[in-house]
Amino acid sequence: MQPAQLDLTPQSNGDGSLNVVRLDGKLALETVHNFVATMRGDSAQRLVLDMSGVSFLDSAGVGALVQLFVHRRALGQKFALAALTQQGKAVMEVSGLIKLLPIYASVDEARNADA
What we know:
Distance between the termini: 39 Å
CATH superfamily: STAS domain
CATH architecture: 2-Layer Sandwich
Strand order of the largest sheet: 1-2-3-4-5
């Protein structure tokens, strides 16, 4: 069995105020430590996570997203999720976080919002 993997790919946008990062793989217990450690270092005023490549999201992954949201809010930085998969959307709905976290249907919608 292969270990769970999560790749983070920054998407260029031309200005330092917005950073879009595409996630590919599993945002789960095995990958959250590196995810949080990497994403906490992002200093852009706005961060959008493109979740379209997340094949699996578990409670540890949800916890990591909340931790990142709270961390960024404390620094006065903004955070949004975009393009959740069906499974990701279901997990966010069950957890009640669909009402707490800024979530957009697409990356373009998140880019254009004043998230």
